[in-house]
Amino acid sequence: MSQGLIDCYKAIEDSSARMLDAARRRDWDAVLRCEGACAVLIGQLRLKAQEQALAPEQRSEKARIMQRILRNDARIRCLAEPWLAQFEQLFAGRRLH
Predict the structure, then answer these.
(1) pTM value?
(2) How many CA atoms lie within 13 A of 35 on its CB side?
């Protein structure tokens, strides 16, 4: 049964939602922790996807989950851009020797 795959997608979505919440709070350490959790979950998804396939009726659910993950990612990037700009300014002018 491919419910395990859908569960993996849902877990990634949950982690991306937590990441978005952390970004809204400007808790960049928590964002990085959630990003690490997402990476682990994506690795697990890749392994399961080699062993299982989604049923045709689950593909639309996967698409909806992926759209929500992508929206979360876009929102996180918008929130992080000012922080990244500050980070770049902090290191502007510093050269690696």
Answers:
(1) 0.79
(2) 11
Distance between alpha carbon 48 and the CA centroid of its chain, in Å? 18
Q: CATH number of the domain that 73 lies in? A: 1.20.58.380
| Pair of tokens at residue 82 | 């000012």
Is there a domain that residue 83 lies in?
Answer: yes
Residue ranges of E strands in 1-80 = none
Q: What angle do CA 82, 87, 88 make, to 5 degrees?
A: 95
> Does the structure show a pLDDT above 70 at 94?
no
User: Measured between alpha carbons, how far is 32 from 1 in angstroms, rounded to an integer?
Assistant: 33
Residue 52 lies in a domain: yes
Using CA atoms, how far residue 95 sits from 3, 21, 91, in Å, is 51, 34, 8
Which residues form the domain of 41? 3-91
Residue 35 in tokens: 């990003």
Distance of CA 87 to the CA centre of its chain: 21
